[in-house]
Amino acid sequence: MIGSGYRAPWFAAALAALACMAGRADAAQCGNTAAGFESWKREFSDEARGRASAASLAALMGTTYSTATISADRGQKSFKLSLDQFLAKRGGNTIVSRGRALKAKNAALFDQIEQRYGVPPGPLLAIWGMETGFGAVTGNVNTLSAVATLAYDCRRSAYFTDQLYAALTLVDRGVLNAGTRGAAHGEVGHTQFLPKNVLTYGVGGSLDNSSNALNSTANFLKGHGWRAGAGYQPGEPNFAAIQGWNAASVYQRAIALLGQRIDGQ
């Protein structure tokens, strides 16, 4: 007879499997088509009660499945280009030319940012130009619908579930609302912050204001280890902070190169 203090290996494995099944049963079920989105919203809202307010969950229930978001998520082919091809596609020479002009025009702002965060103008202007053409194109996709769609979508559900909770918090704070529009993955503002980054690194209010966006971007880089006065090219200390901005290697190298050219190095 097996004593009460002993559990055979098969028994422990069975308990673990049951616990896993229970966790899955309690979780809102992801999906890869629009068909289950409305059910998922109801399941997610039930789970989120107590963690998100009734007002923010009401905003969530008003979202729709964003086919534009899914199309963009599945079609990020430019990240597979060579660096030269990528820069040509993104208009690298134009970004450098316009970046230098904006650096001169807003010298006091960039001096203040560098004094506070240690980040020089070049990489900030490179990011600004790459992300939105210096604020010209910030996106026209409903932000809450984009983030909710990606939280429901099975490909990166866990990552965007965190972003969705952050977005609901921003709704409560009045930073986002049911009508906010931005890029296809839920990024907002001049430098395209995801909701969780708005919460963590956002400075000064709305990132639709270029000064706030640039300060927030510098704060992001500092929060990812930026050291004042250190280099930011591949292999140099601050390149790791640029890597924190975007996971695509070609994007990282483009920011570093364009930033260097804007700074006149």
UniProtKB/TrEMBL annotation:
Domain Transglycosylase SLT: 37-232
InterPro entries documented for this protein: Lysozyme-like_dom_sf, MltB-like, SLT_2
PANTHER family (UniProt xref): LYTIC MUREIN TRANSGLYCOSYLASE, MEMBRANE-BOUND LYTIC MUREIN TRANSGLYCOSYLASE B
Signal peptide bounds: 1-27
PROSITE patterns per record: PROKAR_LIPOPROTEIN
Pfam family, one: SLT_2
Keywords: Signal
Name of the protein in its database record: Membrane-bound lytic murein transglycosylase B
